[in-house]
Amino acid sequence: MYQNVYIPYKGYWCSPFCRWQGSFQNQNATELAAAAARRFFELRGITPDIFDGIIYGATIPQPQWFFDVPYLATLMGNPRISGPRISQACATSTVALNFAASAIESGSNTNLLVVTADRTSNGPNLLWPNPQGLGGKPHYESWMVDGFNLDPVAETSPLGTANNVARKYGITREESDALVLNRYHKYLDALAEDRKFQKGYMIPLEVRVSRKETIVVEQDEGIIPCTPEGLAALKPVAPDSILTYAAQTHPADGNAGMIVTTKERAAELSADPSVTIRILSYGFARAEKAYMPEAPVPAARRALERAGIRVSDLAAVKAHNPFSVNDIILMRELGIDDKIFNNYGCSLIWGHPQGPTTMRLAIELIEELVLKGGGYGLVTGCAAGDSGAALVIRVG
Predict the structure, then answer these.
(1) Global pTM?
(2) Does a structural domain hold residue 144?
């Protein structure tokens, strides 16, 4: 368990998440993340020279990616620092936050900025050398369409792993549809009172969409309304599947960031020093081959055990749910009360830009815990390769 790893209250931000091929489709994700960081500094009265390192969580290459972290640090206003890029598919933010926590706990850093960003839209297309091909014809791979769609170990797609889990646990179409509708209505709670909840952490961003037009993106784009009738009318994605298009997340673009620091520095940087936010523990696990949605269960158990708490001690839970079955089995296996689970939204509804997905979940977890007057929170989720990662956070 970590002893001295803290997050300043309001020491984090998230951009709106835009559906694939939306308003962020032509923005360099690294440059957009730097612009968001600068806006965050401006709003919080922070100067970027306070950081002694940066960690960048990203999974989809952008132009000049070889230099991405020093480029990001320079663009955000501190050309004297750099750091590693973390890439762990859907668990990128969780792993990056744990990396930062380890650096703070060990004393190798005292004030880190963790920035996460990805653009699934207009991803790179790769040509691999293939000397044995006809006339040396290269092998073509689309980073998004091909690379994400087949796990070479599981020998199936992420959707295939979700179908396996649905069959194993006997999950029905009715359960899946009910979960989707539930999560959509929980997202609507974040939009109440003129988006009061989201405005506590979300930063509008100005982007140029053409030579003559600049727009301000203030809120998530591409949210699809859900009704019982609409969900019931959808066809399964495959004849032997209980999942529909609505029961899986959609690719998105966006960024998010968080300060990870010591107790003393967190108090100095906090918007309210009476609020303490501490990272307690981390857990990582790998499920049986081709059963990816199961992985958050053992990952969460390990994080809870290392924090010395039980599920009954949790005041809030946030989980990356690329499929409805993720939440269903997590609730079943851990005994999580839906009243504390994925309130105010989740990736099933607002989308999945890979790198920043679980960062947004961690931010929303903190904001919810503050509203509840504090307590323990869990953020977890699956990732490529039948793996999962989890963090336990305490707000006091």
Answers:
(1) 0.97
(2) no
